[in-house]
């Protein structure tokens, strides 16, 4: 569920300096705020829906990297003690 073109253009025209000023910090904050509002309403409506992390998400990749580093440190510690 992404922002519609109408919603996006409305936010850009309200907070941007120009018509296509999507890079403006105020516009970006307003777009993210609107998206958060949508997601909040969605989670209120669908309370039992579970959120899963796609394998390409930064959180998933960070977790995998952490696990690999932990394994390497455990292996290194066991060899040196």
Please characterize this protein's 3D structure:
It is a single chain. The chain is 68% helix and 0% strand. It is built from three helices and no strands. The chain is elongated. The protein has helices spanning 5-15, 25-45, 58-80. By secondary structure, it is mainly alpha-helical. It folds into two domains: 1-50, S15/NS1, RNA-binding (Helix Hairpins); 51-81.
Secondary structure layout plus pairing:
Blueprint: H1 5-15, H2 25-45, H3 58-80
Looking at the structure, the CATH topology of the largest domain is: Helix Hairpins
The strand count comes to 0
Helix residue percentage: 55-70%
Beta strand %: under 5%
CATH architecture of the largest domain: Orthogonal Bundle
Average of the residue pLDDT scores = 79
Helices and strands, in order, run as HHH
CATH superfamily of the largest domain: S15/NS1, RNA-binding
Instruction: Please tell me how large the radius of gyration is.
Output: 21 Å
Q: What is the CA–CA distance across the termini?
A: 53 Å
CATH class of the largest domain: Mainly Alpha
Low-confidence stretches: none
- How many domain regions? 2
Gross geometry: elongated
- Largest sheet: number of strands, sense, barrel closure: none
How many individual helices?
3
Query: In terms of structural class, how would the helical and strand content be classed?
Result: mainly alpha
């Amino acid at each position: 569920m992404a922002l519609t073109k109408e919603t996006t253009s409305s936010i850009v025209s309200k907070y941007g300096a120009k018509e296509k000023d999507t890079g403006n910090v105020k516009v970006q904050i307003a777009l993210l705020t609107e998206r958060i509002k949508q997601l909040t309403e969605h989670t209120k409506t669908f309370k039992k829906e579970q959120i899963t992390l796609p394998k390409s998400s930064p959180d998933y990749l960070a977790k995998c990297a952490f696990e690999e580093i932990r394994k390497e440190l455990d292996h290194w510690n066991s060899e040196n003690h």
